Amino acid sequence: MSAKKSRRFGRFHDTEAAQFLRDRIDAMAPTTQREIAVAAGFTAENVLSMIKFGEQKVPLERVEALARALGVEPHHLMRMALAQYTDGKREAFDRAFASFVSIDEEHCVAAIRQAFAPAPVRASPGLLEAIERGTRNYLTNR
């Protein structure tokens, strides 16, 4: 009977970034972890595994490429990665980056501006309610 090799988890195993990577990589099946690592530009095959199991932090210089390989917004992954470098004190980053929007969100804002043109957009309670109601309707019927 062969003994199953147990995995030693690193000090960053319980960070939001490591958990997110584990979940996202699992969700991307049948794409392999190796394919994701190559797409992200990692030269060593095991680096992504080391990050996933908390043995290594997410290298900040690879965040954009890794986010692209995972199909997620770079700023979302960057916020989680930065928390690994600051002992999890992500609140300061959340405050600093609170106004950042994704590329898709920018497209939504552009569509709203175009609908209002040439008048400026005013965030009235009625407009916000209409956007929320319209978004819910869109999500329900897609």
Would you write up a description of this structure?
This protein is mainly α and 142 residues long. The protein has 2 domains: 81 residues, 434 Repressor (Amino-terminal Domain), CATH 1.10.260.40; 39 residues, no CATH class. Helices cover 58% and strands 0% of the residues. It contains 8 helices and no strands. The radius of gyration is 20 Å and the shape is elongated. The termini are far apart. The model has no long low-confidence stretch (mean pLDDT 85).
Brief summary of the model shown:
The chain is 58% helix and 0% strand.
Oligomer: single chain
Strand content: under 5%
Helix content percent band: 55-70%
Largest pleated sheet = none
At the first level of CATH, the class of the largest domain is: Mainly Alpha
H/E element sequence: HHHHHHHH
Short key terms for the protein model shown above:
8 helices; 142 residues; single chain; 2 domains; 434 Repressor (Amino-terminal Domain); 0% strand; mainly alpha
Topology of helices and strands:
Elements: H1 16-27, H2 33-39, H3 47-52, H4 63-70, H5 74-85, H6 91-96, H7 103-116, H8 125-141
